[in-house]
Amino acid sequence: MNRKLISNQELASSLLIFKIKLKQLLARDGLTQKELAKKVGLSEATINNYVMGRRLPKDSTLRNIAKVFSIPLHVLLGQDRTTQLFLQSKSEEHMYSNFANTYHIDPLLAVSYFKRHMY
Questions:
Q1: Which of 16, 21, 85, 92 holds its CA 20 to 30 A away from the CA of 75?
Q2: 20-36 pLDDT tens trace
Q3: Would the pTM count as exceeding 0.85?
């Protein structure tokens, strides 16, 4: 992952996704942060920074973590289809919520009204 070519928003999103994935994988495999640190040759404090979303690992570390959990790198980074569909649904949910708060109307009612009166 070339961090120099991504925006602050993309970096924040990557940190959040990686943090969530890492927590899920630790729980799934019943590993502690200390055990993961030992398996990938890092300090427990470094793993804690990843789990807390303070830092993203280097590319080589990401690959090692993916190997420990026996998953492809793109899944660890949240670039798999399931994660992307979930994020898309959350984005649409947020968009509808913003619309409702801004215009004080349910967006589904607005769409329904528009369809009835415009078509």
A1: 92
A2: 889 989 999 999 999 99
A3: no
